[in-house]
Amino acid sequence: MRIIAGKYRSRKIWLPKGSFSKKGASLRPTSDRARETLFDVLSIEADFENSVCLDLYAGTGALGFEALSRGAGSAAFVDLSPKNLEAIKRTAEELGCRGQIYMFKEDSLHYLRGNQDKTFDFIFADPPYDYNKYNELTELVIKMRPILFALETSSSRDWTFASRGYAIREKKVGSAKFSIFISK
Prior knowledge:
Layout: E1 20-21, E2 24-25, H1 32-45, E3 52-56, H2 62-69, E4 74-79, H3 82-95, E5 101-105, H4 108-114, E6 122-125, H5 134-143, E7 148-154, E8 166-173, E9 176-183
Parallel strand pairs: 3-4, 3-6, 4-5, 6-7
Antiparallel strand pairs: 1-2, 7-9, 8-9
């Protein structure tokens, strides 16, 4: 897995050991094609330069690292897996951006509930496709008033949510669907 564009273009994103098995993936990273499409859309809407990003359900950290590569000033990664956080740390060290990242070993909803006073310009969330708390996740993120919120779901998942002050764009890429909330 590699970073698509920006100053870290083509640099490796480390995968946690044991992330994949023949029986199925315990980790489902956002594909290169999906990340490229997402960031093409996001770059039209806002500038990443010196922004503060939050990568929820971080996994490999690919979305946060892509933002850093495109000029974000810092990125916070939230994930429950120590293996995932170790891979994120390794990627940051190899990229030379360890001082720009923050890692939290915590459930993403718990993190959001406890950090409503924090300010993030961009929030990314890529929960497991069988996730069932999209409404709560969206409500908590919208209360934080980011400039952009990008939520990845399965392209087959259909759900509705209140946008409260956000325009919503949807983009499907293969098995992924991005719901992008853009502050009005």
